[in-house]
Design goal:
120 residues, mainly beta, 59% strand, elongated
Length: 120
């Protein structure tokens, strides 16, 4: 089992910045990748960025150049640095971990979510 706890959300003006944190605990040694998703009211959950255990990263077009994902292995924490925020970035942001199980299956774990609100 992997437990994820997000923090860092809040209210920010358009053009501002926020940094989200996701602290992982539990059986973290087999995590293959972690990512950040968001979900706005009435919209599907959207993958924003991911980082693999080899530090390979990827971004959705909607956030490329504005958001940066990184991780601190010593702290078992993944970050999402968000800059040039727009009102359309308003959503609940979720941390996700992809865990490789002993039988070869993949398991997904989610944090509780943190609200980000960008005012115009």
């Amino acid at each position: 089992q992997v437990r994820l706890v997000e923090s860092g959300g809040g209210l920010v003006q358009a053009g501002g910045s926020l940094r989200l944190s996701c602290a992982a605990s539990g059986s973290i040694f087999s995590i293959k990748a972690m990512g950040w998703y968001r979900q706005a009211p009435g919209k599907p959950r959207e993958l924003l960025a991911h980082i693999t255990s080899e530090d390979s990263t990827g971004y959705a077009d909607s956030v490329k150049g504005r958001f940066t994902i990184s991780r601190d292995s010593a702290k078992n924490t993944v970050y999402l640095q968000m800059s040039s925020l727009k009102p359309e970035d308003t959503a609940v942001y979720y941390c996700n971990a992809v865990d490789l199980l002993p039988n070869g299956d993949l398991a997904h774990y989610w944090g509780q979510g943190t609200q980000v609100t960008v005012s115009s």
